Amino acid sequence: MLPRLRTFVLFLCTCLPTLALCACQPKAGSEHLPIPDSTPETASSVSSASVDKLLLPDGKDILYRAELCPTVMSLGEDVADIARQHLGIRYRRGGASPKSGFDCSGFVYWVFAKYGVSVPRDTVRQSRAGQEVARNDLLPGDILIFRIGNTPNGRHSAIYIGDDKFIHSPSAGSRVRIENLNAAYWTRHYMTARRVLETPPCDLDLYSSPDTVD
To answer: Which residues form the NlpC/P60 domain (predicted)?
Structure first.
């Protein structure tokens, strides 16, 4: 082999692996989508919804599973939004509409009915509706039950809206308002919480396409 050719071959064998390695390094400041099969530390900080992407049939927009399939959290936030729209409505014993006013169970009943979910009208049955939820697992839209008075059936119901807050129609002479669940009075009278919201079946095949992103 000629000396010049030998030198050129040696150069290729020495430099090409280095160049290939450099080409594979990410550029500074570039962003990368999280990888589902990452280390536990990384995976724990990224929800499953954030890595489950679907490409729309138009091939342009990407939606996340959470945008296509509602969760109990998202449903509950919708319920909480409806409840907040009626802040200031006066209390009325036996009332169950914005025009007439609300008692506590009537407010809970009406808000869920407005959202299309049927719940019992009275506090005793509301305290048995759906599934029981531990206090540290509360989500927006959960029904809170407090023990009020000295009778076995003395109950007061409200709607949890998140961040240790709930909304309710308290008592005669008051109006629908937001309270802190951690206040001493409510902590002392807290009885249980019930979850009546359920996520509907979600068929992702309705949204998928041949270009679905893995």
So the answer is: 73-197
- Choosing from 86, 168, 189, 202, the catalytic residue is 168
> Residue 172 pLDDT > 80, yes or no?
yes
DSSP state of 91: B
Structural domains in the chain?
A: 37-69 (no CATH), 72-195 (3.90.1720.10)
Neighbour tally for 125: CB within 10 Å: 13
| DSSP string for 39-60 | -HHHHHTS-HHHH-EEE-TTSS
Cα dihedral 172, 176, 178, 182 sign = positive
Strand runs (DSSP E) across 119-154, as ranges? 131-132, 143-147
pTM exceeds 0.70 = no
The C-alpha torsion from 198 through 143 and 187 to 132, rounded to 10°, is -50
**CA distance to 145, 156, 185, 209, per residue, from 188 (Å):** 12, 13, 5, 54
Q: Provide the percentage of residues in the chain whose pLDDT is more than 70.
A: 63
Residues 110-163: tens digit of each pLDDT: 999 999 999 999 999 999 999 999 999 999 999 999 999 888 889 999 999 999
Q: Where are the alpha helices (DSSP H) in the chain?
A: 3-24, 40-44, 48-51, 65-68, 72-84, 104-115, 123-126, 184-189
From 32, 156, 189, 202, the catalytic residue: 156
